[in-house]
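Propose amino acids for all 473 sites.
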């Protein structure tokens, strides 16, 4: 069904055909707008931003581009087209028709997952609220706002499901999604990474590279769900998500390229010299990568999880790209996990596959993360340097799961807590790093100009030149 933009809430779910639901969502809409004004991007409400808006749900040509003031963005409800005769693809009910309603016995599990997914979307907007004030270029400012409005729409996607399929407690959860806030002492967001501050653009690029990519993998898992409206919502969200990770990957590439330029100009890779010239040295970049990668690993949950086993068995949440696996039941298979042994080393434990589904998803995610590193390392190598960026061990710096709170080095070797505390400033962003990065954050708003720590992008948005005025006063 095509998207209807003549309604107050644009949608392709025939909202006008269900007056009660439509009224409930129209009641939530002004609260969302209040939240956007209060917690969303600061200072730029009156600016024209060159944004893309969804106009269809086909993979090709689903977006139109044009100048929009963010508060006028048409947030709506868009589901990918239904797949005729779709069947459950994994778990105990494999092969049965998918569900158009939530089965009563799985209601609370679905609600928990949808609320958790929904919570991350506005959280990220809150985390990025002040970044516009220090944008490195108008091109980047526009990308930030594109990501922000789409995360706002992802919130709409989950709120639609809560309202349409969960009745009164769904409506209450939708209110709570606007009441919890990132980093709030009393009412924080649900998952760890979404309470971490994002106060500089290096963190923003790391977040969109690593944390939006967790979004990709979680959405892929939920796109396999037997609850068809959830699967269809997530399938469409994934098409939007690609741009968020593009912002992260190209942002970090541009940091690398700019640093290499400075190294060439200065004839040295000395971090102090690079900092004096206003660039981001590679050891510092590596520490930021370590932090955001590690934090995002936690978002997959514990390696051994009864929640994961239950949601897989019940067809609620599959593995990312379930079709790539041969065995969709996983009743007999097992996974070997690296676990801390009692001699201060690393041992192994064999766990039933269903309980290890979080780890299976995390492993796919790590492989995907490595692609960017390969690309950045290629750029570094081509410039004639031996230095390589890398991802730390998945055992390093964890706060969730088997390795939570266990001190290891970047390779995952265990070590004493004292030794770890001593080395930590070399491995994770330290006070000095943060202060330095902060000092680089100056606002650049002349069309086509870039801040000194960042190379320009290869091309603009939607075939527009890099020097296009992407955000206009
Ligand atoms: N921080 O059995 P466990 C995105 C909790 S990102 C805090 O280990 P389970 C986006 C867990 O909630 C994608 N708490 O794990 C990106 C549970 O608590 P309850 C977001 C954590 O349940 C950028 C307890 O520990 N989507 O879209 O198998 C910008 C035991 O859990 C954490 C989803 O996450 C943590 N890191 O799996 C914008 C998908 N990890 O319930 C957007 C929906 C675990 O016992 N969520 N806990 O009180 C899920 O699938 C699952 O809830 C999780 C955890 C994968 C998160
Ligand atoms: Fe999202
Ligand atoms: Fe995203």
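Proposal:
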């Amino acid at each position: 069904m095509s998207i209807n933009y003549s309604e107050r809430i644009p949608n392709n779910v025939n909202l006008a055909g269900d007056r009660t639901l439509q009224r409930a969502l129209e009641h939530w809409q002004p609260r969302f707008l209040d939240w956007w004004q209060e917690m969303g991007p600061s200072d730029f409400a009156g600016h024209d931003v060159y944004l893309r808006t969804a106009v269809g749900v086909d993979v090709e040509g689903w977006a139109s581009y044009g100048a929009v003031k963010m508060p006028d963005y048409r947030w709506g409800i868009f589901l990918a087209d239904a797949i005729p005769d779709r069947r459950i693809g994994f778990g105990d009910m494999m092969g049965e028709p998918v569900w158009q309603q939530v089965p009563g016995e799985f209601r609370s599990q679905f609600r928990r997952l949808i609320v958790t997914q929904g919570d991350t979307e506005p959280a990220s907007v809150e985390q990025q609220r002040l970044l516009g004030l220090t944008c490195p270029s108008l091109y980047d400012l526009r990308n930030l706002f594109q990501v922000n409005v789409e995360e706002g729409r992802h919130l709409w996607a989950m709120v639609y499901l809560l309202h349409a399929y969960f009745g009164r407690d769904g409506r209450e959860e939708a209110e709570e999604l606007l009441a919890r806030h990132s980093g709030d002492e009393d009412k924080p967001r649900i998952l760890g990474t979404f309470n971490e501050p994002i106060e500089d653009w290096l963190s923003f690029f790391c977040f969109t590279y690593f944390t939006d990519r967790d979004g990709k993998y979680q959405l892929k898992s939920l796109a396999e769900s037997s609850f068809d409206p959830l699967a269809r919502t997530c399938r469409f969200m994934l098409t939007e998500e690609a741009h968020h990770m593009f912002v992260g990957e190209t942002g970090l590439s541009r940091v690398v390229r700019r640093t290499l330029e400075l190294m060439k100009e200065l004839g040295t890779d000395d971090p102090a010299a690079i900092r004096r010239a206003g660039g981001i040295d590679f050891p510092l970049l590596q520490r930021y990568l370590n932090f955001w990668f590690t934090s995002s690993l936690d978002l997959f949950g514990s390696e051994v999880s009864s929640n994961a086993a239950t949601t897989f068995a019940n067809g609620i949440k599959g593995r990312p790209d379930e079709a790539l696996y041969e065995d969709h039941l996983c009743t007999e298979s097992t996974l070997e996990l690296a676990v801390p042994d009692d001699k201060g080393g690393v041992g192994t434990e064999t766990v039933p596959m269903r309980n290890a589904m979080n780890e299976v998803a995390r492993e796919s995610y790590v492989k995907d993360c490595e692609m960017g590193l390969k690309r950045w390392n290629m750029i570094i190598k081509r410039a004639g340097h031996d230095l390589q960026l890398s991802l730390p061990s998945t055992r390093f710096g964890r706060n969730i799961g088997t390795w939570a709170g266990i001190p290891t080095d970047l390779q995952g070797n265990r070590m004493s807590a004292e030794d770890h505390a001593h080395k930590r400033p070399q491995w994770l962003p330290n006070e000095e790093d943060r202060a330095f990065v902060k000092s680089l954050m100056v606002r650049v708003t002349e069309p086509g100009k870039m801040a000194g720590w960042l190379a320009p992008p290869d091309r603009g948005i939607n075939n527009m030149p890099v020097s296009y005025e992407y955000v206009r006063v």
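Residues 15-294+422-472 form a domain with the Ribonucleotide Reductase, subunit A fold (CATH 1.10.620.20). The chain has eleven helices and five strands.
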